[in-house]
Amino acid sequence: MTTDNHDPIARLTLDADAVALTAALLALDADAGARVLLLSGDWSAAGASLRDASDDDPVAALAALRIPVIAWVDGDCHDEALELALAADIRLAGESAAFRMGHAREGRIPSHGGTQRLTRAVGRGQALRLLLTGETLDADEAFRTGLVHDIGVVEDAEELAAAIADAGPVAAQYVKEAIAASADLPLRDGMRLEADLSILLHSTADRAEGLRAFAEKRKPRFEGR
């Protein structure tokens, strides 16, 4: 992982070490300078390491991360690797990306949230089809089903990360929290949570800086507090 106090974009490169990935994600969650995570690398190797992961589950650590997460996928993203990608907030794919949930073809089912997150991403019918058949989707098919949010090159993912990093970090975290809760809350309760978070945001230094910057017609200098 390459991140420091001067770079609000944390970059984490996947490999075959699930334990190290979990540790890196936990460390990142404690890094007050990070505003967005760009996750990329060898999704195939990461997926293979996840098959044996138990106590050190990077999928759960990724899903719990307080900052927004962008997953850049180029190449095979199968089975456990796709479960990991589904724990990201935004997924971008390269032209050579391929996605599959082939657990059932091996007589097993996902164990890192795949049934739940895939259903939320593509809907019940598509999730059933993909999980029961083990069909492989190319980048275009993944985009059409909503599994990925855009197709492009890695520079597109970098630009998106930079745009998110420019947002108020506290506001971005509250947006992520409210949207994550919307899957489980009735509309009225979700609206109440949004209102509560908005009130909390009004007490932050970043909110005051945003108002000053707007009045002075300049870019805000957010500090994440």
Description:
- Helix 4 packs across helix 5.
- By secondary structure, this protein is an alpha/beta fold.
- 50% of the residues lie in helices and 16% in strands.
- It folds into two domains: 163 residues, 2-enoyl-CoA Hydratase, Chain A, domain 1; 49 residues, Lyase 2-enoyl-coa Hydratase, Chain  A, domain 2.
- 35% of the residues are buried.
List keywords for this structure.
3-stranded mixed sheet, globular, 2-enoyl-CoA Hydratase, Chain A, domain 1, Lyase 2-enoyl-coa Hydratase, Chain  A, domain 2, 11 helices, disordered N terminus, alpha/beta, 2 domains, 225 residues, 6-stranded mixed sheet
Tally the beta strands: 9
Strand order of the largest sheet: 1-2-3-4-6-9
- Please state the CA-atom Rg, rounded to the nearest Å: 18 Å
- SSE pattern: EEHEHHEEHEEHHEHEHHHH
Compute the number of helices: 11
- By oligomeric state, this entry counts as single chain
Outline the fold blueprint.
Elements (H helix, E strand, L loop, with lengths): L1 E3 L2 E8 L3 H12 L6 E6 L1 H8 L7 H6 L5 E5 L2 E3 L1 H7 L3 E4 L4 E3 L13 H9 L1 H10 L2 E3 H7 L4 E2 L2 H12 L3 H14 L4 H16 L2 H12 L9
Parallel strand pairs: 2-3, 3-4, 4-6, 5-7, 6-9
Antiparallel strand pairs: 1-2, 7-8
Helix pairs in contact: 2-4, 4-5, 5-6, 9-10
